[in-house]
Each structure stands twice: as structure tokens, then as C-alpha cells.
Amino acid sequence: MAHVPVTGEHSPASSAPVDTHCPYCSLQCGMALRPVPPDGGPGDAPGGRPGGVEVVGVEVVERTAFPVNRGALCGKGRTAPAVLSSRVRLTEPLVRRPDTGRLEPATWEEALDRIAEGLESTGRAYGRDAVGVFGGGGLTNEKAYALGKFARVVLGTSQIDYNGRFCMSSAAAAHQRAFGLDRGLPFPLADVARTGCVVLVGSNLAETMPPALRYLTELKEAGGRLIVVDPRRTRTAEQADLHLAPRPGTDLALALGLLHLVVAEGRVDEEFVERRTSGWPEARAAAMAHWPELVERITGVPVPELRKAVTMFCDAESSMVLTARGPEQQSKGTDTVGAWINLCLATGRAGRPLSGYGCLTGQGNGQGGREHGQKADQLPGYRKLDDPAARAHVAAVWGVEPDDLPGPGRSAYELLDALGQDVRALLLMGSNPLVSAPRAAHVESRLRSLDFLAVADVVLSETAALADVVLPVAQWAEETGTMTNLEGRVLLRRAALTPPPGVRTDLWVLSGLAARLGWEKGFPADAEEIFEELRRASAGGPADYSGITYRRIAEEDGVFWPCPERVERDDPESAESVSAESPLADSPLADSTPAESPPAESPPAASPPADSMNAGAHPHPGTPRLFLDRFATDDGRARFAPVSHRPAAEEPDAEYPVLLTTGRVLAQYQSGAQTRRVGELNEAAPGPYVQLHPLLAERLGVDEGAPVAVVSRRGRAVAPARISRDIRPDTVFMPFHWAGPGRANTVTNPALDPVSRMPEFKVCAVRLEQAEG
């Protein structure tokens, strides 16, 4: 139990501990918060304001019953309440004054009026697509839904995307292509500990989501094997039975080389391939062009290690491949993930209990955030924006004509690149692209060139500091809403505190802006009211939430989507009947066995017995496990991807002879906008660094701690050297959490994957120079 001071005016929403979830990564670890009034004892005054007790502290209480983390928290989660302090957060609106050019305090009326005028006048002068909206993967499902609706209905713009595009869009695209449905993990995390072998590709979860490491520990304790693929020997790689350290940008060749060996050694599950897949001949031919010796030359992974990996993966009774940003944040990320999926399909390690491919989503609501409309090409329920039936369904829920909805817009980086040119005004919520976007110096210049920028955030981030209007919005502990974690488990964050007097919720902001722009109805500020509309909008879509309610989430510790609502078959006009259109409602795609129970060897179908459909007698149980009987494609078969290796967009040369890869560290999170304001975390990770091998350091003449400049074709970043044998001699690593001279994304490459539009964060060519201290 941790007591974290919270200065400023807060009132307890309840005197008892309130069950909620961590504000950071996609695990969405369960925790409870207990407000502590000035006397240090449990508060007993009624919640709300006026009349509530001023709270000066919050206790983080373990929530051991929540199945994902079972009470465990990392340092970020344990110290999360520190950002509630008025010393580090925004507590009143700020408006940039023309006479001084500085951001100064303003009233909410003035701030909202200024934003409404800025957005409306820009659209009137230059067209609706001159107004852009940029969201975030940390926004609740309700906020993501409302933001997408606001952009398309109120502003009428197609120019909306979000920073989740930088998270797992390549895995999402590969999921869709292979399985017909994208959910990060098609099984609960509990299954990871029960499988026979896990191949973990490009993930350092010991630092990025530490409470999840227990699943790998339990896997090994039960006799399972762990293979880690990473160019660095990370804390996670140290736990592996086999560590493969490929050259950055060669994961695709590695996966193809493993599949080549599967074929050559006669390990293909021919019966599974014949019965449950399509496209194998083409994928097989592509893999056979990647023989082991060629793959060793490309990747640097010795042939004996390739053979050992295949033996470990195929000899296990069940196996999984889990990927993260390493293979995904590449200009060929979709194909790379597709190659790892091919390995699962060829060996029959998909669509079976305790086997399959999954992606470890990064951001807190990276899963839900891309399901309900803030992505450039999507409508709620993971519907496609260019699908006429999807447009008709959502337009009916929104009370507009389908033809009035704009079409797909630019992806995240392309939207940022268009700022100040085609897009002249921007509303940004919950993102800090000045630090997190590739080619960040260029993105900063584009942000500065805007005619108008409005930012809603909890802190004055580097991006917010450039805005014309900054709105202080409520934090995770001060508002209620749903999140969808990496398993597809829909969760309920509950408010434990009311926000300070000068702070409002994002939903309140959108409601106020919509009213000023002529939409006094349709944008409530109440989260549960919005969720009820989201249920109707998602009904019948791939991500069907229509059978999920706040009450069910609370009672069941989360509900896995898809979860269509039961219908009364004798009442086709009932409000619930729309969910009968769901492609999953009557198809046996899934095992409804409880997530924390072992899956059945012969899993039951998701469709209930006929008599259970009477009068809504049984709600849909939710879908912890997908694809156990069929995949979500039209014919029920998984699709192989006929992919071949190709180089990174930027390979080393004489001028830029070294590879740079980037990532996260244990004590910081994403752009660091929140974690860099927590003293304990800054003590653990005070700033950026350049990790390099001793051979490279010797060649450069650099000592431990000396400043090193990392220079690419896009810019220069300077940070202290951290010399280590845990990285390849041809590669350097930088964490990307900081702004200023050590901003790693100053040098990263914005080359885009042609399918997912993911930038190539994970590999670019650089040179190293000694820098002045």
C-alpha cells in the first residue's frame, strides 16, 4: 500500500477503496484507490463538491482478486497518483494572448469560445478538411468514440487519426489479413503460462509491463520454453531458454528462415493447413527462397540457433508467438507480422487451445482506441469507414445521413506532416507528438506553422506548450469510463476523486464545443450515457460491445469482446435485435470457457443452445478465446501471407554506418509527459542515453558517460554513452521518453508501411560523433 501526496483541492468520490485500473500500459492492472483526508484517516464526508473533505493524499491499495496482475504493480502504477498533484498538473485553462504571445489563465467560457471560433473559422475559410483532430491511445472508449463522432459529425472532417497508429497498427493489419479480425491477444494472458513454448519477438516486457513477466516465469516453472528475439540482451532476454539477436530490420527474414526449416524438416501440420487455411502454396514457395545460410547472412543469427528454435517451437505440444513493437514499427511491419503468423499456421499453432499468434498492445487503451472511431479509416465497432452498410448503421445511430459522413483521412504521421499546409487548425487530445512522432523536429515545425492549435491534456506537455488554447482535463482517478486491455477485456475505471474546481473532463469539453458549433444534443458529458450509445453503434460490428454494460464489467472483472446482446427471436423489432447481425453472434468462432480456467480440448461453440435464446434468458458470456472452431474470414479459413524479405527503408552506408533502434525503459512511459513529473521515477531514469557495444565505443574513443551525438539524415540527438555487451556491435539503442537535445525521435525515420502506415521507428542508419559535455 503506497501513500502518495496529492496537493490541491480534491474531494473523495467515496470513503471506501474504489476499484479501478492503472493509467499506463495495456495490461490495465487492477488497483484500488483510497482517498485520505488531512487527518490521515479514512474520509467519511460525502463525495462531491461543495461540502466534501479536501483530500491531501491517496492510498494505492492492492487489488489481488483482479486476474491480470493479481495485485502486482510496477513503479509507474504504484506512483501514478503523484501526477494528481496540482504542483505538476494543469488546473485552469490557458489562452495565448496576442499582445504578449504567452499562455495565460483564462475562463472556461473564453477558452471554449476561442476553440470553437478557431475551428469554425478555419473550416469556413479553407474547407472542412482544413481542420484536423488528433487523439490518443490512452483515451477511454467513450472518449475515443465521442472524439470520432465529433470530428465526423460536428466538424465534418475526414482528418482524424491518433497516436495509436504508432503502437500496433502493423499487427492489426496483419491480424485482419490473416484472421479477418484484429484483437491483440486472441486468448487471455493466463493461457501464456500454460502453453509449451513462447516465442517473444521484439518485446522487453520485463521493463515495459513488469507484472506480465510472471506469466513467463510460470511458463518456465511448468516446463515450458521461452525464446526471445531481440537485438539487445534485455532483462526479458535474460529469462529466455534461447535468445536470438538479429540485426534490426531483419525480423521478416528470420521468420521466413524458421518457416523454411519447418518445411525442410517435415514439421508442417498438413491436416491443419488443408482443413483450416488457404494460400499455403504461395507462402511455402516464398519461405523456401530463404534458406538457413542466407538468413544467417541477413540476420546474423547462426544456423544452429535457427534449428534449435524450430525444434523448441515444434516439439512442444502447444506454442505461441507474441510480437510487440520490435517487428511492428518497421516499414515492412505488416509483412513481418504476417511471416510470424505463417509460422503459427504452418505448424498448426493457431485456432487451438493454448496456441496462436498474439500482439502485446502498448498503450493503455491501444486496443479499444482503434475500435470505436478515432482512427482515420474506421467507424465504431471496428467497422470500415468505406463500407456502405457500416456507414448506414452508424449514421442511423448518430441521426445523420450516411452521405454526410466524410471518407477515410490521412494516417497519423501523414496528418502531422500536412499541418500548416492542407490542415491549418488542429484539436489534439491526450497526445504529445512533439516527442513521440518520428522525425520530431520536422513535426515540431509543422505544429508551429498551424493557424490554430488547441490541446486538452492533464499536464503542460511539450506539444501543449505550443498551443493557442490549453484545456486542463480530468485524470484517470477523477472520472469513470471503460478501457479495453491487450486481451480484449473491457474494463471499468471508476472515479475515486472529483477533479479540482478548474478542471473538466474531455467529454464535458466535447459537449461544450459541440453545443457552440450547433450540436446541442448528441454529445452528453456522462460516460455511461455515451457507452450506451457506443453499444448500439458497435452492435453487429466485428468489435461488438452491445452485450456489455457497466454493471456486467463490474460484476465480472471485465467482459471480453465480441459480446453481442441476446435477442428475442420472436420480436424482430426489439432494440436489441440489431446485434443479431454480428458476424460472430451465430458463428462458432470461440471458446466461452472463463478466461482464468484452462480451455477445453474440444471447445464449445460461442453460439448457445437454441433454448437459451428465448426471451434473453442468458446474456452472451463474452469471448475470452477466439478462432477455436473457425476464423473470422468469409470462408472461416486463416489466410497465409506470401511475403518475402526486403531491406529496411534506410540501410547503413559509408556516411551512416550504424543502426539505431529505440524503445522504452522501466521507469518512464511513452513521451514521458506524466512520468517525467514523478520524482521517484526520475531518480530511477533521469534522462536519455546511448547504449553501445564496447567495440563500437573503442572505435569512437568514447568512455562511459561521455556525451555522444547520434546523427541521421533528419537530425541529431545527444546523450551520455552507456557501454554494454548486451547490444550488437553494429547497433545503438536510445529510449524515446525525453524532449530536448536527447530526443531520440529527432533522428528516427518516418518511412511508412504501405498497409498499416506505421513509421519505421525501430531501424534507421546513423553515425556517432563525440559531443561536447
TrEMBL record:
Origin species: Streptomyces javensis
Cross-referenced Gene3D superfamilies: 2.40.40.20, 3.40.50.740, ADC-like domains (2.20.25.90), Dimethylsulfoxide Reductase, domain 2 (3.40.228.10)
Statement: the UniProt record of this protein carries the keyword Oxidoreductase: no
Protein name: 4Fe-4S Mo/W bis-MGD-type domain-containing protein
Chain spans, region Disordered: 564-628
PANTHER family listed in its UniProt record: NADH-QUINONE OXIDOREDUCTASE SUBUNIT G, RESPIRATORY NITRATE REDUCTASE
Signal sequence region: none
Pro residues compositional bias, start-end: 596-607
Keywords: 4Fe-4S, Iron, Iron-sulfur, Metal-binding
Protein's UniProt keywords contain Iron: yes
Listed InterPro entries: Asp_de-COase-like_dom_sf (IPR009010), MoPterin_dinucl-bd_dom (IPR006657), Mopterin_OxRdtase (IPR006656), Mopterin_OxRdtase_4Fe-4S_dom (IPR006963), Prok_molybdopt-oxidoreductase (IPR050123)
Pfam families in alphabetical order: Molybdop_Fe4S4, Molybdopterin, Molydop_binding
Taxon lineage: Bacteria, Bacillati, Actinomycetota, Actinomycetes, Kitasatosporales
Domain of life, source organism: Bacteria
4Fe-4S Mo/W bis-MGD-type domain: residues covered: 15-86
